[in-house]
Amino acid sequence: MTNPTDRNAALAARDLKHIWHPCTQMHDHESIPLLPIVRGEGAWLVDAEGRRYLDGISSWWTNLFGHANPRIAAALAEQARTLEHVIFAGFTHPPAIELAEQLVRLAPPGLEKVFFADNGSAAIEVALKMSFHYWLNQGHGEKTRFIALTGSYHGETLGALSVSDVTLYRKTYAPLLLTPVLAPSPDAYEGEPGEAPAQVAARRLGELRALLERHAHETCAVIVEPLVQCAGGMRMYHPDYLAGLRQLCDAFGVHFIADEIAVGFGRTGTLFACEQAKVSPDFMCLSKGLTGGTLPLSAVLTTNAMYEAFYAEYSAGKAFLHSHSYTGNPLACRAALETLAIFRDEPVLERNRVLAAHLARRLEPLRAHPHVADVRQTGMIAAVELVADKATRRPFPAGERRGLRVYLHGLQHEALLRPLGNVVYFMPPYVVSEAEIDHLVEVATSGIERAVM
């Protein structure tokens, strides 16, 4: 019989014998604990020895309504007794039909068609391929490139990495990747002294226009994460950039791809981030919160005009070429339907505004910290930028792994905080209480003190 106090170590040892974890230098686990989680309770995770951790990052930004949510669990159980999966080529099923109908009803105007996939990176692949293939079907095979923002991240399959600007990934996998045209990010943190976020957006739109003047003839689409560049360090920008981007895409004849995988479903204060600019993209990619954080599922919403460019006799050879075995999985679709039902039945966005305001108040004192260059927030996403020198915004050397110190401190004090480099961020489930937000901020603040020593 395993000693109860050794349960975490026993499970970790079994894991490390065979499992290779994502986004991890496995050697780190010689000194950094691997934590076996055996159950979830609302905003909390519980390990094998009963210790609890407040999930301040929604388990990679997926969880909306708490772990083991009873409504979603009940819907999944009912669906599992009815239909677990069916091929989605030549067949369909009620959960997928109803989910597509509801997504179209909720999405920005003009997005009338839904293509399902099974994760965020796959959704990006679909949008990139569909944009290119649209232009090919229209007789514009010369359009083969994409414009992305500096600091962008859209996933880790090869197409998604090709439109991401993450130095480590591009350096490693460069021979396998397409080369995007990079437009300067409208990131407000990078603004000039005294420059307001809207002014940064306007200046960056001018630079994007100049790029389109040179490259529109070979460009399929511009791809952006609306309002928040999440994995790039929670970089935030003004909605005016999205409005201007829509105008520029129309003027220069390129598509607008909105990657709402992380920012959709209420994270930024509205159901979809694009709503804050009152724009409709040509493609909107969704995943993560789509199922409330229970099962992998993604969707690409697009226009009737896009669909019609592929609609032809079989002999024309215009059909879109993309498939996944678990496309439109009934279990995942049913989880998504229950997630949308919670938005319908409960005042989720209204409650989020109250929680976001409380989070902002609690983070405000950190603005005066000598090693904090910026505290920024968009809805239920907040970030604290740690620097070596506040006056010059000189960053800590990446090799010092200051953010890792915050992470380890959090685990010792019942909080899951997983900084992005030296950016400590908060993206909790929507079921978090104000008292739990207080706990996250207090642990983060004490962790920051230890990290900058």
TrEMBL record:
Protein family membership: Belongs to the class-III pyridoxal-phosphate-dependent aminotransferase family. BioA subfamily.
Enzyme Commission number, as recorded: 2.6.1.62
Protein's job: Catalyzes the transfer of the alpha-amino group from S-adenosyl-L-methionine (SAM) to 7-keto-8-aminopelargonic acid (KAPA) to form 7,8-diaminopelargonic acid (DAPA). It is the only aminotransferase known to utilize SAM as an amino donor.
Keywords: Aminotransferase, Biotin biosynthesis, Cytoplasm, Pyridoxal phosphate, S-adenosyl-L-methionine, Transferase
Reactions accelerated catalytically: (8S)-8-amino-7-oxononanoate + S-adenosyl-L-methionine = S-adenosyl-4-methylsulfanyl-2-oxobutanoate + (7R,8S)-7,8-diammoniononanoate
Site feature Participates in the substrate recognition with KAPA and in a stacking interaction with the adenine ring of SAM, where: C23
Domain of life per record: Bacteria
Protein name according to UniProt: Adenosylmethionine-8-amino-7-oxononanoate aminotransferase
Binding site for substrate: W60, Y153, K288, S323, R418
Binding-site residues, pyridoxal 5'-phosphate: G120, S121, D259, H324, S325
Subunit structure of this chain's protein: Homodimer.
Record localization: Cytoplasm
Major localisation: cytoplasm
